[in-house]
Every structure is written in structure tokens, then in C-alpha cells.
Design goal:
The protein is α+β, with helices and mostly antiparallel strands and about 260 residues long. It is built from 10 helices and 6 strands; from the N terminus they run ββαββαβααβαααααα.
Length: about 260
């Protein structure tokens, strides 16, 4: 509310930008005047600013609400976002019910007003130093519970936006979102020592999603969570930082488009 500029950038307290970030973001807005939000790559780094080798998505130059509805847009985190003032006036303020879902909220709400631009260049750095509040959210039962509540709130908001716009979510979006929720429910039940309940969730996943490539991958990987949530987190962190595992997974378990 206190800002006066034409563009509004976000920067989380742990993160920092490349020195050319603002110049390149403004140049992108000038090249694509129809976009209302621009995102760029964020590189995960440790406390010493050394790269953690996180995979970067193969974005197109621009994308639309239809791409989101098909679950085809990997979002950048908040520190990689810049809004035009016009779109920001329709997106902000962020509802207080959102705490860890702010980036999803901003990007999705903006797409209902204008296309999104994607800069395939690292213009920001996401610091992972061990004390980040949300960096290890799958490792904390309390944070998993909080995120499940936020996902439920976001889902109710999204349904109202879709109704106003006359749009519907694709089967792919519903599959991706439901598998994310399934993973968290299995992990949470395992953390809480409710192994029988975790197994019930897992069996429900088998009956609902085994026919899809992503479903089989998620269901098989969640077997680790049934054994030990800590074992699951260990292999999940390996998966995030080793690109060859990701490529091999896509070959073995191709996803619907």
C-alpha cells in the first residue's frame, strides 16, 4: 500500500537477487506488455551461497490460466515474482489464512487477470540454511498439518474464482493436487505413529491412481513413508538434487499431459 512504482517485486528475508534482476525483469515487461506477472529462476544455495543444484523447469516464454488449469506451470517462489501495479491491485492483500501458500496464491490469482511471463535465467537465490521456516515442511508434522489446512482454504478460493471465470480444472490438475495431499496425509499419519491409517491412505491411492505414471511413482515412493517418514525424506532430498533421477523417473513413469 505504501509503494508508488509501476511494478511490485517480492523478496523473502532469507533470499537475495542477482544484480541485473530488476533490469532484466523490466526489459521482459517491455517485450511482452500483455503479461501481468513475471517469474524467473531461483537457485537454491546454502548458507555459504554455494549452489544446491536444484532442477529448473523448462518454461515457455509466457503462459496463461489454461496452462495452470492443466497443471503445466511450475511456479517460482515469492522472491522470483514481480507484478504490475494493475494486477497487484486485484491480487493483494493476501488473505491472512495463507502463510506458506503465498507464492501459489499470488501467481494463480494473477493468472485470472493476465498472462504470466517466464524468464529462464537465474535472477535470484533462495537460501537454505537449516533454519528456514518452510524449507523442511515435509519433515515436520505440525507444518504438514498447517499446509493441509492451507491447501483446503486455497482450494475453496480457487473454486470460487473458477466459477466466476466459467472455467474448470483438468483431470491432470486434480491428479497432481490429490497426489500431493495423499503424500502429506501418509507422512503425517506415519509421523504420528498411526501406521494403520497411513496404510489405509496408501491403499486408497493404489485404487485411485495406480493406472497413471505419476500415480504409480507417488504410490511406490510413499511405501518408504510407511516404513519410516525419515527414510522418505532422505530419498526425497536425493531426488530433488540429482537431476538424473528425475529424468529416469519421467522415462519410467510418464505423466499425462
Amino acid at each position: 500500500a505504501m509503494s508508488k512504482g509501476r511494478y511490485i517485486c517480492f523478496l523473502d528475508s532469507d533470499d537475495y537477487w542477482h544484480k541485473d534482476k530488476l533490469k532484466k525483469v523490466l526489459a521482459f515487461f517491455q517485450k511482452y506488455p500483455s503479461v501481468g506477472l513475471v517469474q524467473h529462476y531461483l537457485l537454491d544455495v546454502n548458507a555459504q551461497k554455494e549452489s544446491l543444484n536444484n532442477p529448473l523447469p523448462a518454461w515457455p516464454d509466457t503462459c496463461t490460466l489454461e496452462d495452470f488449469l492443466k497443471a503445466n506451470i511450475p511456479y517460482a517462489a515469492t522472491s522470483g515474482l514481480t507484478l504490475t501495479r494493475e494486477v497487484a491491485s486485484k491480487v493483494l492483500p493476501i488473505p491472512k489464512q495463507h502463510f506458506c501458500f503465498t507464492d501459489n496464491y499470488i501467481s494463480t490469482r494473477a493468472l485470472f487477470s493476465a498472462p504470466m511471463g517466464n524468464i529462464r535465467e537465474v535472477l535470484g537465490y533462495h537460501r537454505v540454511h537449516g533454519n528456514n521456516f518452510w524449507a523442511a515442511k515435509l519433515s515436520s508434522p505440525a507444518l504438514i498439518e498447517g499446509e493441509l489446512k492451507e491447501r483446503e482454504f486455497f482450494s475453496s478460493e480457487l473454486l470460487s474464482w473458477l466459477k466466476e471465470a466459467g472455467k474448470e480444472l483438468s483431470p491432470r490438475y486434480l491428479e497432481v493436487e490429490n497426489l500431493e495431499i495423499l503424500r502429506r496425509r501418509i507422512l503425517l499419519a506415519s509421523y504420528q505413529g498411526k501406521r494403520r491409517q497411513a496404510f489405509v491412505y496408501w491403499k486408497e491411492g493404489v485404487s485411485s491412481y495406480w493406472k497413471s505414471g505419476l500415480g504409480r511413482f507417488r504410490i511406490l515412493s510413499c511405501l518408504l513413508a510407511l516404513v519410516s517418514p525419515h527414510l522418505y525424506i532422505f530419498f526425497y532430498n536425493l531426488y530433488k538434487t540429482h537431476h538424473w533421477i528425475v529424468r529416469y523417473r519421467h522415462k519410467l513413469f510418464p505423466e499425462m499431459k
